[in-house]
Amino acid sequence: MRALVLILVSICVLPFIVRPAIATEIWIFAIFGLGLNLLLGYTGLLSFGQSTFFGSAAYVAGWLLKHYAINVFLALGIGVGVGALSALLVGYLCVQRSGLYFIMLTFALNQLFYFIAYQWTTVTGGEDGMPGIPRPDFLGLNFKDPLVYYVFVSALFLLSLWAMKRIVESPLGKILQGIRENEVRAEAVGYNVPRFKLLAFVIGGAFSGLAGVLYAMLFGIVPLEAISFVFSGNVVFATLIGGSGSLYGPIIGSFVFIWLSESMSVVWARWPLLLGVAFVVVVLFLRGGVVEAWSRFWTWQSSRHKASANPSAR
Amino acid sequence: MAILETQSLGKSFGALTAVKDVTLSIEAGSLHSIIGPNGAGKTTLFNLLTGTFAPTTGRILYDGQDITGTRAHRIAHLGLARSFQRTNVFPAFSLFDNVWVAAFATARSWQGLIYRKAAAYPEAAERARQALSDVGLLPKADVPAKAISHGEQRQLELAIALAAAPRVLLLDEPAAGLSPEETRRMVALVRALKGRYTIVLIEHKIDIIMSVSDHISVMHFGSLIAEGPPAEIQRNPDVRRAYLGGIAA
């Protein structure tokens, strides 16, 4: 409940602090992170290929928006579908292996998609990206207005968060966490582990696809990076920094990541150094990311309060 | 009537033959023990019965049906549940969630798998509570599994198997690493389960085996060397030789 209030307040305040485009990007990236976290935080699968689904959805929906002037909701639906379908394809191959081989497979397949996008210049524009993606009006709403689009994205983010909350609190959420905790036992008690991993992939892919289309419409272009391993890595970094163990971790991570990259890149070209330091700190001392730091701070605070309220206990 | 049978079951890993030509018949409702020295192939036999490995030769029959080569995750749905020799639980989960996951796996319906609240399945929750109460861990239902003692983890191990509401329980050394006191509690527990389930028990502690078993099969170097009721096994010279090696020979 407190988390929800905090998120609602952030949604209202954010566009007054940073440019609306940046504010919008934060929530888009958060949707992307929610999808990854189902794999990373809940199922214990490190996927280094999430941009495959993000980028594929952005290209397909972007192309249809540009050449066939489809409406926004159809574009989003198609994006979700393409994200899920590409995740089904990639996931099917990846879940056959585990550990390091799994990670390398997600990465290698990501590279495969990347080079397709790179070579297929007539459609994707190759290195130049696919420009000229419109943000058509819908039901009299002028999506070209950055604030209107911001509100629209925020609403979709809230919807995604709600859906993800339902998923992680469902039996599926428990089963995926069981697979993370002990794959052998999960299999022995009667779960087809590869099938469940694949399901996590498809759901994660659907979220990535949604984020991809929103991203394409936000900037009016699908840059080649949108399907590159850099993007896959960014969402992993952001999620780990925010806290992969919790539902809200990726949201905080997205906030930190986008805000840092946008505000620091202007001031200091070497800003990714900061990111590197943050990452090292998280991996070494704070496996639960910002979320864990926050909860540790509060337990420390309350223990101090108790100690001062009750001096005899010292 | 035999509920579980193997016909000349065998498993080789390269040049090593871990299980060789094992023909077993486990009576419904009985407690059938499998004993033998370390490396006799007992756990491999369990892994074959529960689909962890496919056998190299032979067949497995369950309730008259050929289940040879059935994958591990299907086995639980058939009504065969196992516990592991090395504690194999879900460490970060509460004890309740540990057994709940097993209970839900074999629940009659998975309707609402991805959108209904996990708490909205009363049948699975009831079965989970029952399994915990059967092993005496219900008071600790909310404690995470990594925070309980080794002895309690062995009990949890058993509860996870029970939560699947199986017909056949395959217990792989439930008393492994337990103190004498904890062992006594585990024996009492297994005895209480006798009759409610068909139990196949692997155990090293001979005194336990002799006191609870209806029937004993002895394995040595992957093969069955003797079979019979406890009293008969105790007198069998081959069994003594297998256990005591050169000393008795």
What does this structure look like?
The complex is a heterodimer of chains A (314) and B (249). Chain A has a single domain (2-313), classed as ABC transporter involved in vitamin B12 uptake, BtuC, CATH 1.10.3470. The model of chain A has no long low-confidence stretch (mean pLDDT 90). In chain A, 77% of the residues lie in helices and 1% in strands. The longest helix of chain A is centred in the middle third of the chain and has 27 residues, at 193-219. Chain A is globular and about 70 Å long. Chain A contains 14 helices and two strands, in the order H-H-H-H-H-H-E-H-H-H-H-E-H-H-H-H. Chain A has helices at 2-17, 20-43, 51-68, 72-94, 100-119, 121-124, 146-169, 171-181, 183-188, 193-219, 229-242, 249-267, 272-285, 289-309; strands at residues 130-131, 221-222. Chain A is mostly helical and 314 residues long. In chain A, strands 1-2 form a two-stranded antiparallel ribbon. In chain A, 46% of the residues are buried. Chain B is of the alpha/beta class and 249 residues long. Chain B has two domains: 1-79 and 166-249, 3-Layer(aba) Sandwich (Rossmann fold), CATH 3.40.50.300; 88-164, no CATH class. In chain B, the strands form two sheets. Chain B has a six-stranded mixed β-sheet, with helices on both faces. Chain B has a four-stranded antiparallel β-sheet with strand order 2-1-4-5, with helices on one face. In chain B, a hairpin with a 2-residue loop joins strand 1 and strand 2. Chain B is globular. The model of chain B has no long low-confidence stretch (mean pLDDT 89).
